[in-house]
Amino acid sequence: MHWVLHVDLDQFIAAVEVLRRPELAGLPVIVGGRGNPGERAVVSTASYEARAFGVGSGMPLRIAARKAPEAVILPVDAPAYLEASAEVMAELRAQPGAVVQVLGWDEAFVGVDTDSPEAYARRLQQAVLTRTRLHCSVGIGDTLVRAKIATGFGKPRGVFRLTAANWDAVMGEHAVIDLWGVGPKVSKRLLALGIRTVAELAAAPADALTAEFGPRMGLWYRELGQGGSSAVVDDTPWVPRGHSRETTYQTDLADPAEIERAALALLDQVLDDVAEDGRGVIGLGLKVRYAPFTTKTFTKRIPETADRAVIVERARELIARIAPDRAVRLLGVRAEMTLPEDARDGRTPTRGAW
């Protein structure tokens, strides 16, 4: 029988740091920014010991330091995490009959035909641990969505099966925001329709959902409520749809000319990344976080072009939308690119994209 496994490394970044510094084992460890809570930065990850103090990913580092004053705070070391991730993914691909779809540094789908998915999952966990000394949790499902959600019930270091047989019993009374692919904004829109739980979403009238979200997304959200339908694990190499850069400034930017220079400097870095891919740009995005903490996003579709000067001029149109009388603490720039014909089709539902 075909199964989808979702492999998620437990507290991945913190675990890599503990491997490098064994004396940190059992201590609250926070990784973020340059490791200085006096600077503006957010938590990239926190060990389970730090999470017990209420520290979580995306939290401002200064707040995390107040919540866990005894925590060890370390700077982000992306090359080390990429190296560890590559080892894990190589081991997943080495498993018998495995088809691996990488989702990020610390997670992947594994498609496999087996009569005993739990036994396969336990062997996989041991193989990863033996090769990398990293622990992982495994969700077992008959669809991608169910496998992904199942992992949360298996953490840490566990295995959990979620299929059509137990979907309603396990997930029916959960709030819709607990679904993979439903964030706070969509959750609020569903609540306005009287849809609070997963079971209510699964049974929601199609016309109500399509009226609110459109014919494609409306039906997709209802399908999420039913546990999804796709069980295809696609190992086609992922081709990025775009490149982005963002910076949190240690001192607010207040002068409009300074803000424009900072945004264009980020754009310059993004276009260097785009040039390495050799594809045209078809869209631009600008993320602005005003002081103290209000975030706005502006986007623009543009005719496909690789002309840097043209892209910069179109980006200036977005930059002109920044409020001239408000200080800025963060800027982010994104360029969307054309996709090659052999790129993986479709999108994987995720949270937090901008």
Order of helices and strands: EHEEHHEHEEHEHEHHHHHEHEEHE
Average pLDDT for all residues: 94
CA-based shape: globular
Strand order of the largest sheet: 5-6-1-7-8
End-to-end Cα distance, whole Å, is 37 Å
> Largest sheet at a glance?
5 strands, mixed
Radius of gyration using CA atoms only: 22 Å
Topology:
Blueprint: E1 2-9, H1 12-20, E2 29-31, E3 45-46, H2 48-51, H3 61-67, E4 72-74, H4 78-93, E5 99-104, E6 107-113, H5 117-132, E7 136-141, H6 144-154, E8 159-162, H7 167-171, H8 184-192, H9 198-202, H10 206-213, H11 215-225, E9 242-253, H12 256-277, E10 281-290, E11 294-305, H13 308-319, E12 328-337
Helix pairs in contact: 4-5, 10-11, 12-13
Task: Please give a structural write-up.
This protein has 354 residues and is of the alpha+beta class. 38% of the residues lie in helices and 23% in strands. It has helices spanning 12-20, 48-51, 61-67, 78-93, 117-132, 144-154, 167-171, 184-192, 198-202, 206-213, 215-225, 256-277, 308-319, and strands at residues 2-9, 29-31, 45-46, 72-74, 99-104, 107-113, 136-141, 159-162, 242-253, 281-290, 294-305, 328-337. Strands 5-6-1-7-8 form a five-stranded mixed sheet. Strands 9-12-10-11 form a four-stranded antiparallel sheet, with helices on one face. The chain has a three-stranded mixed sheet with strand order 3-2-4. Strand 7, helix 6 (144-154) and strand 8 form a beta-alpha-beta unit. The longest helix has 22 residues, at 256-277. The radius of gyration is 22 Å and the shape is globular.
